[in-house]
Amino acid sequence: MSSEKEPLFSSKNLKLLTTPLGAQNPITVQVLGICSALAVTAKLEPSIVMSLSVVFVLVFSNLIVSLLRNTIPSRIRIIVQLTVVASLVILVDQILKAFAYEVSKQLSVFVGLIITNCIIMGRLEAFALGNKPWPAVLDGFGNAAGYGLILVIVGFVRELFGTGNLTFPGIGEVQIVPDIVYEWGYVDNGLMILPPMALITVGIIIWVQRSKNKDLVDIS
Amino acid sequence: MDRQGNTYTFLYASVMVIVVATVLAFVAEALNPIQKKNEEEAKMIDILKSVNIESTTANVAEKYEQYIGENVYIVNFEGERQDVKPQAAFNIDLSKEVRKPLSDRQYPVFECHLDNGEVKYILPVRGKGLWGPIWGYVALNDDKNTIFGATFDHKGETPGLGAEISTDAFQQQFKGKTIFDNGDLVSVDVVKGGVPDDAPHGVDAISGGTITSQGLDAMLEDYFNGYEAFLKK
Q: Which of A78, A117, A209, B82 gets the most CB atoms within 10 Å of its CB?
């Protein structure tokens, strides 16, 4: 252990926070958590609430597993991680039902599906098991935010072009495309609401990102 | 103790399970009253919405008291009113009732007295969509034939497709439709491909939500059949 105390936001720690937003994005680069990214992004509001829920679950599961990392018997470590994640997800579900009932009704099945989100188990295995609590929290936050960023972008694009509206938490549905545009003959693209377009939207994001950052292009 | 040994592993797993179970049980118990209240309020909001009374969680209890209050009762398949307290009638769990045969179910009726003196009968309905249950409330005029308003909701239908049954645009179509034709029960059909606006017993189904629409159609027919005796009285 170094005698000098590392600052909370040293450049090494900040990197944990920022690389998952871009060069190590869980969805577009590591291609994790794709399933839920496709499922919840038909509208903006569930995308946002889902992102916040994942931030909560990932930060705390990373923290708890990191605190327990020296005590966990390696043979049952996956089960231990799963228990931690499942408990946190149930906690989120119960809290949403009690204090954000409307949103919880909309997210219904999706909250439970956080358990199966590969990002969470991936980060626990790859990072929290071998690092101290504070970097683990940052790593969890960074990865969840990287996931959420893509979710919000996809949700925004799909709802805007699919229905002409955007729904925000706490505000509700807001019409974005003005009526006059419809009078000119613009038609909402109903295909955007369907799952294939989520895949295509994510694909376009990946394409844009890789054309800007050649390091990510895998030429093997 | 040997951290990789069997004893340690078993102990670790047991302690973890006990801790997790305690925490979750405690949270669930602590939050249960709030969740129950939310569910009741959501139910009241839905009931009032079927008669076009908008309410929020802040004022729903008061409005419910004003328009419906104690006028909740249960009828059986023969249309006879049962001797049950209003609160018990309100708490009837349709998810259990819907599994019984029509003749064994209990049918709650919410009688709503509007400001202008009109009486509306609000009937809860429940059925199956594509992914899970769908339910709703249908308000009938005092001729027990013309639909005054309807509201539907669902557990997990596809957003933008089947989930559209919970939108105003879909629900508005039910206004003014009739469920009897010359004294015969015909229900309201949810028709793929649409119906003319003045069709008395049909509404337009949801594109891309065919199975949900069919489920809604079946749900209405099922429950109107159950209420038929009461409605004919």
A: A117
